[in-house]
Structure formats: C-alpha cells, structure tokens
Amino acid sequence: MTDASPRLHTGSHDPQVSPGLSRLMGGGWSPTPLPASARVEAYDVTPARRALLSARFPGERLIVPAGELKVRSHDCDHRFRPHSAYAWLTGLTGEDQAGHVLVMEPEGPHGHEPVLYLRPRSRRAEGDDAFYRDRRYGEFWVGRRPELAEAERLTGLRCAPLETLGSPPGRRATEDAELDAALSELRLVKDPWEVDQLQLAVDHTTAGFEDVVRALPHALAHRRGERWIEGVFGLRARAEGNGTGYETIAASGAHACVLHWIRNDGRLDRNELLLLDAGVETDTLYTADITRTLPLSGRFSPVQRQVYELVLAAQEAGMAALRPGAAFRDFHRAAMRVIAEGLAEWGVLKNAEGDLHRRYTLCGSGHMLGLDVHDCAKARTETYPDGLLTEGQVLTVEPGLYLQPDDETLPAELRGIGVRIEDDLVVTATGARLMSGALPRTVAGIEEWMGNLLEG
Ligand code: GLY
Ligand code: MN
Ligand code: MN
Known about the structure:
single chain, alpha+beta, 2 domains, three-stranded antiparallel β-sheet, binds manganese (II) ion
C-alpha cells in the first residue's frame, strides 16, 4: 500500500491505493477531446480589451491572476469565481480557473503577447494518479480541465503550464494601484456584447422576482420567510446563470432599514413591506442589481404608499438626469433634492437645505454595474465619481428611505419603514435606456402585477 502523497490533496479518510490499483488506473481510457469548435463566449471581444490594456503599459509585464481557492471549512473550498479583470481579459469564467494567471508579456517597444498559465488536464499514466485521487483538482473529483492545446483553441491565447510560470517581476493586478485603476477604467464603458449579457442578467432577475411573488403564500407561512425568499430567488439564479451576483437581501419590515440585510432570518408579516434586492449573475459573470419594495398583503397601506411614492419620485428624478456628458454625481443630487424636499414637506426636516436628509437615506443613489455589482470600483476619482457619464456605461439608480424603528425624530407611523427602488440603466447617445423596465415600479403597477402572479 502507498501512503497519500503530499503533492495530492487527499483526505485522511480516503482509502489507500495499492500499486496494482495505481497500475490499473493508469490506462484503458478512451480519448475525450473537447469539440474542435468550442470557444469561450467572449472569444471575439477579448482581443480588443487586451489591446486597450496593452496600450496603457508599453514595455511592462502585466500579471493578472484568476485568484486562488479559499477554504470554507477544513478540506471544503468556497465555490471559485475568477477575478473580474481576469474574466474580462480571457473570457474564462469557470470554477476550473482557480490559480491560473494571465501574463501580458511585453513584445517590442509597444505591444504585448498574452500568455495564459494554467493547470492543464492531468495526465493518466501509472504514477500520475492525481486525476482520481486529488480532491481539489482531480478530474474525477471536480471535473475535466482543458488540455493545453484545447485551452489555446478555447481562448485564442498561447497557453503554458502553470508550473513554468515561476515568479517573474512585473505589475501584478490586486497589488498594483495603477494597473488596478486601468483595469477598472477600461471596463467603465461596456461594449454591445456586454450590454447584451447585462440584459440577460436583468431578464433572469425579473423572472426571479416573479418566482418570489408566486412563492409569497408559502413564505408568509414559514417561520423564516425571508430565507424562503432568498432560496426561491437563488434557485432561479443558479438554474439560469452562475448564481446570484451578490448575497440576496430579503428584508421584511424594519429589516429593510438595514442596507445590506443578508441574515434573512426574519418572519414575514402581511402588514409589512418586503425589500428584495437581488441579481442573477450570468454564466459569463455579468450581474443585475435590482430592488423592489413590495407590500406583503399585495396592497400598500396609506403610510407605506406615502413613503414609497417619495422614493419613486426621487428615482424618476435621478433617472431623468442620466445622459452622456452629465456629471456622474448629478443623478444622485437630483434624487436627493426630491427626498430632502419631501422630508421637509412632511415636517421631518425644517427645510430641504444641507445634508441632514442623509440621516434617512444613508448612502449614494447608484453605481456602475457589470462583472462586479459595484463595478469599476478601482477607477480613479476623476474618471468615475468625479467624472462624466459616457454612452455605453451601465449603472444603477437606487434611492431609498430608511426610517429606523428607533428614530425619535420621526412620527411614530413612519418608523420602521424601509423603501429602496433600484433599476439598471445603460447610457445612450441622448439619455439612458431602462433595462429593468419589465418589473413594475409604480404603486398601481406593483399591485396589479402582484395580483396577477398571486392569482395565476
Ligand atoms: N445590492 C447592493 C447594492 O444595491 O448596491
Ligand atoms: Mn446597487
Ligand atoms: Mn442592490
């Protein structure tokens, strides 16, 4: 009997392997090539992206790792999702990308040759028994990886074994602020293929919201209805795409006043609102980011309606401010103006001036959207938060009012109500196109939509 080899990721409870078994496992396997036509979905768009990056760093070696597996508990890893910059440059998005590295090798005074260092499919020969013994990377444990030549056909990149990479000097993504800024800024404007992917993410998310409304009777009866809702949305996300683009926020009642309520362990009450902030991530790793605040009874109460309609008016004002050439901050300012005036009208604020309304709104009114839910976050201030909007940018507009249950500055009837309305838009030549318009936003629209789904 041979002991578990230290180079293999085996478990102490794995049975030992005899020399005879090792010999037997080494042969007798048919070839299983990938179809010659297999390509990553983004095959046609990645060369232009790499050219843009190359032009920013002439003569410099650029290293863009996919990232490493992270232990969840003992020998169980979290699901792996490659770093967004790596996915954007290579088109590779799968769980099998853990540990792989794209190197942009300088070539001549200007250009670069991209080389992908990867762990190719393990060999099957006597003594090469990782394919059936290695729990972390073995083909019989986690699935087949491409051979080197297959990876070259899939991506159009020259590929080399990971073990030949060593530790070359160069600018390394996630450790080099200038490279990280470039990798964010180059993603600020989406190409048409990316806009299509984002629309797909939005469409699957719309279906997920409909699933949730249909499941409300069951969720209302469950002691942890918020979890039931999270699960229903997650089913749609996992079935249609890679999963959710971020942890689903299923917040009922005063939980909605917690911006990122992901504990989702509350019971639902028919008299309260449900704030659902959720997004499906496509297999190509683009995510939607949509929020609807829904009356669990199917009908808004007068006070719920009052709060909802102020947030809706703020969102309308924000969306109307989107156009190429506008400052990124303009839509937030427009939305906050409406909120501040509304709070002053209600007597919550003395007037609409200053920033005191922020006690009730807490955060910004939107952000870039793409491969990351908060996309392009490493862009320099002057190119993103202090920059101008450009055709092809995709962003969210998501004002909210979060009226804390223990806020003594508020009339009692307003306390404990949280409302956010969040939609995804693409900036066009003249304004912006609402991508998530299939989900109703008005009070009447939501009540009718819920009624139809609950009857159906
Ligand atoms: N879902 C997080 C956000 O809306 O920014
Ligand atoms: Mn958002
Ligand atoms: Mn959101």
